[in-house]
Specification:
Length: 167
């Protein structure tokens, strides 16, 4: 009897829409041809910020992987993606690709030192929150970009919504 089929690559960190620092730390579980997994980090414009390979399991053998990637500076966009994949031994194509949307903390505020959680109260706006946390209402875009996974319009936030405030 066969057990459950596991995906070839699972990324544990960062999770979808996490705010990452520089360097970007990643970890997961997977296997690749000769135990090699490829990693690439791109900004929202598609510019490659980092790329390398890391060792995990061998063919048919699962292994943990972890690595640290220096972005070489502050990304041009706050939004980006982490791509983790196996390279086909047959033709070099990218297979079993996992794409994780991420947010670059240093592109929001530099230096980046994490974030606070804020529960939106009635009547609050992103500008008011930026004034409260940064002393500058025009810095609202930092908060908007940190929360793009749940905000489509910077003018619409809801009472009770929990927002990440980059610090």
């Amino acid at each position: 009897m066969n057990g459950p089929q596991l995906p070839p690559i699972t990324v544990h960190h960062p999770q979808s829409h996490d705010i990452v620092d520089n360097p970007v730390r990643i970890c997961g579980v997977g296997t690749g041809f000769e135990g090699t997994i490829q990693v690439r980090i791109r900004d929202a414009q598609g510019a490659e910020l980092a790329q390398s390979h890391i060792q995990a399991g061998g063919t048919g053998i699962w292994g943990n992987f972890h690595a640290t990637f220096d972005l070489g500076g502050i990304p041009a966009t706050a939004q980006g993606v982490l791509e983790v994949f196996e390279q086909s031994a047959r033709d070099g194509s990218e297979i079993n690709k996992v794409v994780v949307p991420i947010v670059f903390g240093p592109a929001l505020i530099n230096p980046y030192a994490g974030f606070s959680l804020h529960t939106v109260a009635s009547g609050e706006t992103l500008s008011a929150l930026a004034q409260r946390y940064y002393g500058d209402g025009s810095a609202w875009q930092r908060i908007f970009e940190a929360n793009r996974h749940q905000l489509n319009n910077p003018d619409i936030i809801f009472t009770g919504q929990v927002l990440r405030i980059p610090m």
